[in-house]
Amino acid sequence: MAGDEPLLPQGDEADAIAELFNIGMGEPAAALSSMLGEEVRLSVPSFAVSTRSAVARDLAPAIVPPVCAVRGAFAGPFTGEAMLLFPEQGTLALVGRLVPVDPAAEGPGEMEQDALTEIGNIILNGCLASLSNLIGGEIAGAVPGYGTGDPEAVIGAAEDPVLAVRIDMALAAGDAQGHALFLLDIASLEAFREAIRRTLANLGS
């Protein structure tokens, strides 16, 4: 996607985006760790100008389908969609810390789906709330909904460019590994970059 490379924030802007999402995910991940009684480990945020289709293809080797997804749109100074993705077995291991799970279950039932949706709400809307505070502008997240399927079914197959921010998540025991994705509409990318610039200016003042 060489034609889109100029859209990708560079230098201080790039560092600021990674740090903002790092901070934004820190508090909800700590809250989830407390709920689960186990450390939730996060990767360094990575981001790229991509498409939903390409993001799904890139993620496919790291996540065994069917994928359990909690996702919801967000709007504010910039718009997009936030997602929490775990494979079925990882979902069962994750929610098994909170609710009784049938050891013979092949996939999440209604109770497990509800538990993952609540975890997604904590992580995704918690991160958006933290970002709101950091950039000084309200980012409103919709109530997340649950879905399942292969990566392309849950992430999408659109070829329109998005700014994709990805944070890998794992429980310390290693039996539940997933991903948080924030897909920002390119149409609002300049508003996002302006928010980043204001944040950098405020930090420097």
Description:
- This protein has 205 residues and is α+β, with helices and mostly antiparallel strands.
- The chain is built from 6 helices and 8 strands, in the order αββαββααββαββα.
- It has helices at 11-36, 52-59, 88-95, 110-135, 151-155, 189-204; strands spanning 40-42, 46-51, 67-75, 80-87, 140-141, 145-149, 161-171, 177-185.
- Strands 1, 2, 3, 4, 5, 6, 7 and 8 form an 8-stranded antiparallel β-sheet that branches.
- Strand 7 and strand 8 (177-185) form a beta hairpin.
- Helix 1 crosses helix 4, helix 1 crosses helix 6 (189-204) and helix 3 (88-95) crosses helix 4 (110-135).
- The protein is globular.
- The model is unreliable at 1-6 (pLDDT under 50).
Please describe the structure with a list of short key phrases separated by commas or semicolons.
alpha+beta, about 25% strand, about 200 residues, about 45% helix, globular
- Fraction of residues in helices? 40-55%
Question: Biggest sheet, in brief?
Answer: 8 strands, antiparallel
Rg over CA atoms, rounded to whole Å, is 17 Å
Order of helices and strands: HEEHEEHHEEHEEH
- Any idea what the shape is? globular
Return the average pLDDT rounded to an integer.
Answer: 91
Low-confidence stretches: 1-6
Query: How far do the termini sit from each other?
Result: 36 Å
